[in-house]
């Protein structure tokens, strides 16, 4: 490494959600941090800017409802002092019960706070080897081939990989509001007229759309073949089940979309007074409100085919696309074999991993693991024992999952109540009451845990 590496207490590799949060948490606890981000010197296949914490897929950070898994994780991060969650709330957009942000303002705010922190130095340079100094690797799902090679060589383990996709974005003025209508499911939105733009479909329109989708031309995945040869196990070109391209989902059955991202529940078409057969939802993507992304429409169709097929959707006949859907390769390590629940490497205590490279999925999960890695790195370097959060908390459960799951079918995991330990009570509860019990137990356990520590957050 260059002379810039001489004085830091901690190196953080990757300026995404996890790396930015990790650097902030460590610096807030007194460490001198060098945060390495290879953009714009070397761009990825999904990023478009040099800003830290750029969101490349959806602009939603999940439900804010307190009895939802993502809402619980947000409440835990709020109590733990997450800087990125604060930035998200400051740049929030109307999105019903979801925490959606203006992706440009969010990234700019995170970048500004990181660059202005007196103990953080941002270095725009690609890291191609694992440093000998205490390090957090938060290089994300698009880790460069050179660093991937270094990680594989160091761990002696093969990486797993899968293809992920991002949704198109259209201009608001190009949406035909004589057909489309504003509403939130069951009227749960913040705005009186509704937080989403909805494009209703009749059964005939839905059937024609599915036919066109299934026959549309797709982009071949050749762009990733070289990366796969450079350290990623050949032949494991899988899609992540939690983020399937819409055309792949359609292949699973003609009604798969109607029961998935195009489900019409909780929505009434004001033109007919009835529930549509299917609905395509669009969510506001920036603060001004002139851009909307197509919810659940991650895709690998050719750009010309996206125009042709997606303009078949009622209300999008003249849609102007400012970003087409794209594919990118995600990479994650064999965390159950390599990591402890503290996010430390089993082989080297001062080497931490955080974010999607660990197998945690979802924006909030990435932020959360970055927070824990930064916190634990600071504790380690101050001579304190790194912490393992209670498994009944959502963050504790995520870290337990990625470090204890079976390697046979290990796939990224989002926050969900299914990974929490069962409730002690034998009394049968309905779904909502069970969720509320999980939340109450988690927040109580987190508070007791923090009170028992020898530091104040």
Structure, explained:
This protein is α/β, with parallel strands linked by helices. The protein folds into two domains: 3-159 and 333-452, FAD/NAD(P)-binding domain, CATH 3.50.50.60; 165-329, Elongation Factor Tu (Ef-tu), domain 3 (Beta Barrel). Helices cover 32% and strands 15% of the residues. The protein contains 13 helices and 17 strands. The chain has helices spanning 17-28, 69-80, 83-90, 103-116, 145-155, 203-215, 225-229, 246-250, 303-310, 335-338, 363-381, 394-404, 431-452; strands at residues 10-13, 33-36, 60-63, 92-93, 98-101, 120-123, 135-137, 160-166, 169-171, 181-183, 196-201, 238-239, 278-284, 291-294, 321-323, 326-332, 351-353. Helix 1 (17-28) runs parallel beside helix 11 and helix 2 (69-80) packs parallel to helix 11 (363-381). It is globular and about 65 Å long. Mean pLDDT is 88; it is low at 1-5 and 223-237.
